[in-house]
């Protein structure tokens, strides 16, 4: 085992020729999608974005569109014509478009999230028809069985192989659609040779994040000095909030190094309790509000943290930004990133 790890560690990868690649980012106006677009432009890829702007925003991409670096298509990918136009002439597709929101959204909008099944299917079909070389999929920790994630006192790190044992129980229809997307991409590779990869993102935060996600909601509330400070559930939920730049770097590495549909976790192994995250944010904001628990509100699973050994092994990936000392906090507490146009939707819940 040790020997094989050493062998893998010594593998060197050729520099990926991004400058000769035409790349589509679906959902490229989103928080993560737009950060990915910036990273691809830094690598001198030629980038097209398709987005219906249902949750993404022009504000996230206008710097890139202003200097003509990216092509933007506005349209709903559930329309087969839009899907076909989007993938035409593309080499690599990063598929991030999804009907998705924070904890409250994915819990309370099951039908809306179920439309991702059609969205993914149409996009994959169009990519196959267009002769796209590779699809990289934004999956989620929501694919993991809920029954594994019930005990916040258990020291559990979700490994990729825990998905199906002994039976799938993804996190609602949002998780089911992500699971179906992953399995479809695996089948597309096995049966039709398309290069594919899936990245399971865990509770992402950072600049351009919006307040329907837990950490950003906490920061927004602290910024406004809200008192009392509402926390969804009993606050004991454990999460591994992961910084967006780390997520984007892992996603690009997956494009460079995974071809066979393998899904990797992209998430830190930090185990952060919601109540501790709230304390940290309020301390940085310099105030001590009364904490009010809202047990009736959606919480998601009580214990969701990634194991990241597979990402280390296959991608050489590890997160660079630890949650506790994230520079984002102080930046966002004073500047709030670019999220100022969004309503403050959620209490401090827990993300995906
Ligand atoms: N933020 C997280 O913590 C997290 C965790 C796991 C997975 N993900 C996944 O990462 C991706 C990006 O999420 P995000 O948090 O950056 O923001 P997001 O959920 O707002 O991103 C989705 C993007 O897709 C666009 N979109 C939605 N439906 C569309 C349609 N029918 N046609 C075209 N575009 C459409 C939206 O306008 C938006 O820009 C999503 O696939 C999401 O499921 C996010």
How far is the N terminus from the C terminus?
33 Å
**Judging from the principal axes of the Cα atoms, what is the shape?**
globular
Query: Averaged pLDDT, please?
Result: 89
Number of domains: 1
**If you consult CATH, what is the topology?**
Rossmann fold
Task: Please provide the count of β strands.
Answer: 13
Within CATH, the superfamily carries the name NAD(P)-binding Rossmann-like Domain
Strand content: 15-25%
Model description:
- The chain is built from 12 helices and 13 strands.
- With 352 residues, it is α/β, with parallel strands linked by helices.
- The chain has one domain: Rossmann fold.
- A 7-stranded parallel sheet has the order 3-2-1-4-5-6-11, with helices on both faces.
- α3 links the parallel β2 and β3.
- It is globular and about 55 Å long.
- Bound molecules: nicotinamide-adenine-dinucleotide.
In short:
With 352 residues, the chain is α/β, with parallel strands linked by helices. It is built from twelve helices and 13 strands. Helix content is 38%, strand content 16%.
